[in-house]
Amino acid sequence: MPQDVVTMDKIVALCKRRGFIFPSSEIYGGLGSTYDYGHYGVLLKTNVKNAWWQAMLSREDIVALDSAILQHPRVWEASGHVGGFSDPMVDCRTCKGRFRADHVADLQCPQKPSKCPGEGPDCDLTEARAFNLMFQTHVGPVQDTASVAYLRPETAQGIFINFKNVLQFSRKKPPFGIAQVGKSFRNEITPGNFIFRTREFEQMEMEFFVPPAEAEQWYQHWIEERRTWYTDLGIRPDHLEIRAHAADELSHYSSGTSDVEYLFPIGWSELEGIANRGNFDLTQHAEFSGEKLEYFDQASGERYVPHVIEPAAGADRATLAFLVDSYDEEEVDGETRTVLRLHPRLAPVKVAILPLVRKEGQPELAREIHDLLRFAMQTEYDEGGSIGKRYRRQDEIGTPWCVTVDHQSIEDRTVTVRDRDSLTQERIAIDDLPALFGGRLAAPWTTPKLAA
């Protein structure tokens, strides 16, 4: 495998420089592991989420849901989050730092970075204790035990508690799925590595309800489906792997869990988990709520609690993986060109329209082209700076094609279309541009980094 030029530092710098992602509350000194998405970051993450929705809702056996962030506290008692959603935590009495006890060997001592917490000459760690990861809040004007609520730590439970509602209105029967995208919140002890692990994050989860006898085959099906989703969107196959959890890693209710892992600059790390959750969740919520959460098959007369296969992905982690995998550098005319070789479907901007000069009617014609394309795809008009600098800027935000308007364009209504990856340029009639770019966006695409 050829050595990648990408590092996490380069990704962080590019995201800040080009307005993808930057620290939240920066003018106040920031708030640890919270980030704001700028214009291009919003467009990129939205494209990632839309691609996920497309993969889910193009099927006839999946419906959509958007459940509330605040839910009845009993939801989290039934799911086990109130009693068991915790990590082991240690404090350092010297530096007042807090660390996950099971991650200490991978962390740096704040006072002596060459050492791990506990190894420095002045370190004084406490005994490990359980730390619940849920953010607690209060509903209503009075803050007492009766008003306690939680910001949801996952989107899955909102799906389970709506199983009966969806079953009634959707006219679906197992096997079928309920998909949702939304924010979750976990009070992580040691978040880090940019947007890889944060306290506020966005999940893309689907719960697939199946007859118990079909659970294993659907588990294998969704492992392959989710691997293919990443590679179809340009992730290099040799940077992905499926890692099955060992028996001692499995949740008590899971008969099988596999992670889709990606080779980040920080090493192999989880992008998505696919779990065979059995009937644990529906059974728990039925017990705690008193509602029957089962399916009755009128044809066979069989009544059962469906088993659940759960592909759960992070929108932020997926966005980071696509940024990392697309990052590239190459020498062009004696200078280093930084480029994001994003799949055109994911690119924040599909086409940039650039007048060569700001005179001779070129800006006006460029605006006409912008109006011709912008309702069909995300486009950007840019007339500031030299054409070379504008090309480099579009390369860094991953724009696959640039349309340059020059003096010849005024004469014959043709423009130069520049390809981001090959750097080839061709003359195209303005009227042919919508069909050209529409066809390219719909066509299969393979990252040119595979040929490197």
TrEMBL record:
Lineage start: unclassified sequences, metagenomes, ecological metagenomes
GO cellular component term of the entry, any: cytoplasm
Domain Aminoacyl-transfer RNA synthetases class-II family profile: 9-348
Organism: freshwater metagenome
GO molecular function, one term: ATP binding
Top enzyme class: ligase
One example of a Gene Ontology biological process annotation: glycyl-tRNA aminoacylation
Protein name listed in UniProt: glycine--tRNA ligase
Keywords: Aminoacyl-tRNA synthetase, ATP-binding, Cytoplasm, Ligase, Nucleotide-binding, Protein biosynthesis
EC number: 6.1.1.14
Family per record: Belongs to the class-II aminoacyl-tRNA synthetase family.
InterPro entries reported in the protein's UniProt record: aa-tRNA-synt_IIb, aa-tRNA-synth_II, aa-tRNA-synth_II/BPL/LPL, Anticodon-bd, Anticodon-bd_dom_sf, Gly-tRNA_synthase/POLG2, Gly_tRNA_ligase_bac, GlyRS-like_core
